[in-house]
Amino acid sequence: MKELVEVIAKALVDHPEEVTVTEKEEGKNLILELHVAASDMGKVIGKQGRIAKAIRSVVKAASSKDNRKVDVEIV
């Protein structure tokens, strides 16, 4: 999951070298924290959060086969 979020985010931003994803496990839940440059924050979130919502939808679909709940937080 971490790699999936990283690849998507790097394709969207102007500074892909500053994209990092960290994983935190809380029981069966997995939290992925996406860190991007401040100037790229708007590109990752999108108008009215549409891009962020799309990223979360893709991750949710990919995680459904693992029977885990995965949350993506943009920091």
H and E string: HEEHHE
Question: Quick one: how many beta strands?
Answer: 3
Structural class, by secondary structure, is alpha+beta
CATH class: Alpha Beta
Mean pLDDT level: 93
Overall number of domains: 1
What can you see in these coordinates?
Helices cover about 40% and strands about 25% of the residues. The protein is of the alpha+beta class and about 80 residues long. The chain has a single domain (about 1-75), classed as K homology (KH) domain (GMP Synthetase, Chain A, domain 3), CATH 3.30.300.20. The chain has a 3-stranded mixed sheet. β1 (about 20-25) and β2 form a beta hairpin. The longest helix has 14 residues, at about 50-65. It is globular and about 35 Å long.
How would the blueprint of this fold be written?
Elements: H1 2-12, E1 20-26, E2 29-35, H2 41-45, H3 50-63, E3 69-74
Parallel strand pairs: 2-3
Antiparallel strand pairs: 1-2
Summarize the entry for a quick read:
Helices cover 40% and strands 27% of the residues. The protein contains 3 helices and 3 strands. The model has no long low-confidence stretch (mean pLDDT 93).
Supply the key terms.
three-stranded mixed sheet; GMP Synthetase, Chain A, domain 3; 75 residues; alpha+beta; single chain
